[in-house]
Every structure is written in C-alpha cells, then in structure tokens.
From TrEMBL:
Keyword field: DNA-binding
Residue span, HTH merR-type domain: 57-109
Organism for this UniProt entry: Flavimobilis rhizosphaerae
Pfam families registered for this protein in UniProt: MerR_1
PANTHER family found in the cross-reference section: HTH MERR-TYPE DOMAIN-CONTAINING PROTEIN, REDOX-CYCLING DRUG-SENSING TRANSCRIPTIONAL ACTIVATOR SOXR
CDD domains per UniProt: HTH_MerR-like (cd00592)
Domain of life: Bacteria
Protein's name in the database: MerR family transcriptional regulator
Coiled coil: none
Length: 258
C-alpha cells in the first residue's frame, strides 16, 4: 500500500491537501488547497441542500465519500475539490435516490476516468424521457402539467386517486414530477390513475417496513444517528425498488402471450 501523504502547512497557514492521484483525481482542475472550515462548507452547500448539517458532513466523511484534511490541532479543513465531491454525492442521493455505497462506487469510477458525470438515474432514463428533479421549485398542477406535456386534469386525477401527494405546504415535491411522468406513459396504454391505487398501497406498506427497520437507529443518541438512519432508509428503499423491478420483470417474461 502506498504510504499516505501528510498534509503540508503553508506560510499563510492554509493546509495543502495531499496531491490527488488516480485514487482521488475527480474533479480535475479544481483547487485542492484546504482553506475552508466545516462552517464554510455548510454555507456553500446549504442553499442547494437546506437539510445539510454538521453531522451529515461528518457521516459522509465516515463513509469515505470525502476526506477533509486535519490541521495539527485536529480541525477539519476542506478544499473546493472536497466541496464539489460533496455536492455531487448529495445531488445523487437527493435526485437519483442512490445509496451511499453506489455513490462511492461512482466517485471511484470518476476518479479513475472510467465514467462521465451522470445526468440522472439510469433506471428512469431507460425507455422514457428523464425529467430532472427540481427540489427548489414550487410546482402547481398547472405548471407540472405544462412542463411535462400532459393535461392538468390528468395531474388532478392522480392527486384525487392518491397516486401523487401534496407536501406539507400544499404543493408538489420533487418526486411528483417522476410519478406524473411515469403515470403518463402508462396512460398511453390505457392505464388510468384509478388503476394505480394498488401500487400506492404497496408502496405505503413498504415504507411501513422501512420505518420499522430504521426505528432503532433513529432512536439512538449520537451526532451521526440521524444521518445513519437516513442512509439506511435510502438503502432499504433502493433494495425494495430493485426487488420489485426484478419480480415484475420475471413475471412479464413468464406471460403467455400466444
């Protein structure tokens, strides 16, 4: 194993991060001198990720997604390259709903030059247009319908059937766009919103299982307890998604269409 290179303190007091080699080469061309405190990183990322906290940053470090430099006094310091890696990881977790394990693998591929920056979740892009999530937007039934090219009455019907649910402020959250998009594809084949109620019921049951599993982690006391519970919930959600997709594809393959 190559010996770990120690950070160097410059005359100005900034900490020079270890040079990025093939193991840590992405993003290229971004400054790697660590001059930012954890509060500076939060200030840079919170406008895009309002729920980000100190504990979430420490948890992402613990999971190996970013490696801030430690000063001789033990304080964390980040570079702009660290911030961009965090921005990528947080966006993939929020927009593509990817587990941290998968995001870490993606970063490793980016580091090695084996992949390009993804534009969205591949599972969503297969077979249908990808509609980017826009968490900061305040969508209405009218704007959502116009943006996705469907009738407003169709969006209203999805809401009335319980397929699309309003958030706590009475608007549509980021994932409503994906639900409407996929429902519109099914509608082209004659599948109406009322036919999708069984899917919503199944999802609600799966969420109940997720809550049961993560409840012990959420109840624990500790600076990273909430972040751990959040990561576990995402992992479970992705596993349910993959399991459902595999079972459905298996059943479709066994259909006797003769």
């Amino acid at each position: 194993m190559t010996p770990r290179q120690l950070p160097q303190v410059t005359d100005e007091g900034a900490v020079e991060a270890p040079r990025l080699d093939l193991v840590r080469s992405w993003p290229a061309g971004v400054p790697t001198t660590a001059t930012m405190r954890i509060s500076d990183v939060l200030a840079a990322l919170k406008p895009e990720f309002p729920a980000l906290t100190h504990s979430k940053l420490r948890f992402l470090e613990e999971q190996g997604l970013v490696e801030p430099v430690r000063t001789p006094a033990g304080y964390r310091q980040y570079s702009q390259a660290h911030v961009e890696r965090l921005r990528y990881a947080l966006a993939q977790q929020r927009d593509a709903y990817l587990p941290l394990r998968v995001i870490k693998e993606q970063l490793a591929e980016l580091d090695a030059g084996l992949a390009e920056v993804p534009t969205g979740p591949q599972a969503v892009q297969d077979g249908v247009p990808y509609a980017p999530l826009r968490a900061a937007d305040r969508e209405t039934a009218s704007s959502l319908a116009a943006d996705l090219g469907v009738e407003e009455t169709f969006v209203v019907a999805l809401v009335e059937a319980g397929i699309v649910r309003l958030d706590e402020r009475g608007g549509f959250d980021a994932w409503a766009r994906q639900v409407v998009l996929h429902a519109s594809v099914l509608a082209e084949h004659g599948v109406e919103p009322r036919h999708l109620r069984a899917l919503r019921t199944a999802v609600d049951r799966e969420i109940g299982l997720v809550e049961q599993v993560v409840a012990p982690s959420r109840a624990k006391v500790g600076r990273n307890a909430k972040a751990r519970a959040e990561a576990a919930a995402v992992e479970l959600g992705e596993s349910f998604t993959q399991l459902h997709a595999a079972m459905l594809r298996q059943s479709v393959a066994r259909l006797d269409l003769r």
